[in-house]
Write a structure and sequence with these properties.
- The chain is α/β, with parallel strands linked by helices and about 280 residues long.
- The protein has a single domain, classed as Aldolase class I (TIM Barrel), CATH 3.20.20.70.
- It has 11 helices and 8 strands.
- The mean pLDDT is about 95.
- The structure holds orotidine-5'-monophosphate.
Length: about 280
């Protein structure tokens, strides 16, 4: 699917036309599939397609997590799923969550994987090998590159919270803040960069927002990880532009809202409730 618009334009349109900051994460776990689908050929694609079709009008993005497909040798189903979203729901950008990070020559292959093979509109990238591990993705000028900054997991603090002040630098700077500063001031050559900041850490969302201005933030951690919706939305709001700037992900709480035959309806109800809570929090 060629000629997709700029990632930031797709987001701006989705935030305004769908009035939603919700991203449904596609993390298909066959153990949790309903009996009607479990064990059948193509089950992963069938499950995800039903979720996508039931929620596409409620979201600003879909985020398939590559490990849930690759673990089952289902990469072809991931390709077909992304193609299905582009064809049936062209207004919804697809963020491939693969969190790759490697030396430049290898990163180039990962960029080909995300954008040529899977035709994603954006990809998550681990920046902790430095700028040359991010740069190959920027050759795709219309694609989003979403860089891990302050992750939602408890262990994220082990490294991301280390102080990294240089000689003569008076304000305390932590590693995740350095990533935010570099990403916004030096790395964002295409204007299509974003950052991952966990909903489990609203204080840090606010700090990152202060550093990066309007840059889109991918915020996982509401739902199953327990992040607080009003605190998240307040912390990540762009000045004078409520309802923009955030792609707030929930996966398990929506995918497995019910594990029986009506799972797609239940997912829709859960997605709608979450979207409405996000809407209410922006006021
Ligand atoms: O990059 C991500 O999407 C991500 C970053 C992060 O810091 N924390 C995090 O949970 N994620 C992903 O977001 C999703 C969260 O899923 P739930 O906890 O089920 O909503 C998973 O696909 C994670 O891999």
């Amino acid at each position: 699917m060629k000629n997709r618009p700029l990632f930031t334009e797709q987001l701006a349109r989705a935030w305004s036309d769908q009035d939603s900051m919700l991203c449904v994460g596609l993390d298909p776990d066959p153990k949790q599939f309903p009996a009607s689908i479990k064990g059948k050929g193509g089950a992963i694609l069938a499950f995800c397609r039903e979720i996508v079709d039931a929620t596409a009008d409620l979201v600003c993005a879909f985020k398939p997590q590559i490990a849930y497909f690759a673990a089952h040798g289902a990469e072809d189903q991931l390709e077909q799923l992304i193609d299905h979203i582009h064809r049936q729901h062209p207004q919804v950008p697809v963020i491939l969550d693969s969190k790759r990070g490697d030396i430049g020559s290898t990163a180039q292959q990962y960029a080909i994987e995300a954008f040529d093979r899977y035709q994603a509109d954006a990809v998550t990238v681990n920046p902790y090998m430095g700028f040359d591990s991010v740069e190959p993705y920027l050759k795709y000028a219309n694609k989003g590159v979403i860089v891990l900054c302050r992750t939602s997991n408890p262990g994220g603090s082990d490294l991301q919270f280390l102080e990294v002040n240089e000689k003569g630098q008076t304000d305390k700077e932590l590693l995740y803040q350095r990533v935010a500063r570099l990403a916004s001031s030096q790395w964002n050559k295409t204007g299509q960069l974003g950052l991952v900041v966990g909903a489990t850490f609203p204080e840090e969302i606010a700090k990152v927002r202060e550093i990066v201005g309007e840059m889109p933030l991918l915020i996982p951690g509401i739902g199953a990880q327990g992040g607080d919706i009003p605190a998240t939305v307040q912390a990540g709001t762009v000045a004078n532009a409520p309802g923009t700037g955030m792609i707030i992900n929930s996966s398990r709480a929506i995918l497995y809202a019910s594990q029986d035959g009506n799972f797609a309806d239940a997912a829709r109800q859960a997605a709608m409730a979450t979207r409405n809570a996000l809407r209410a929090a922006k006021k």
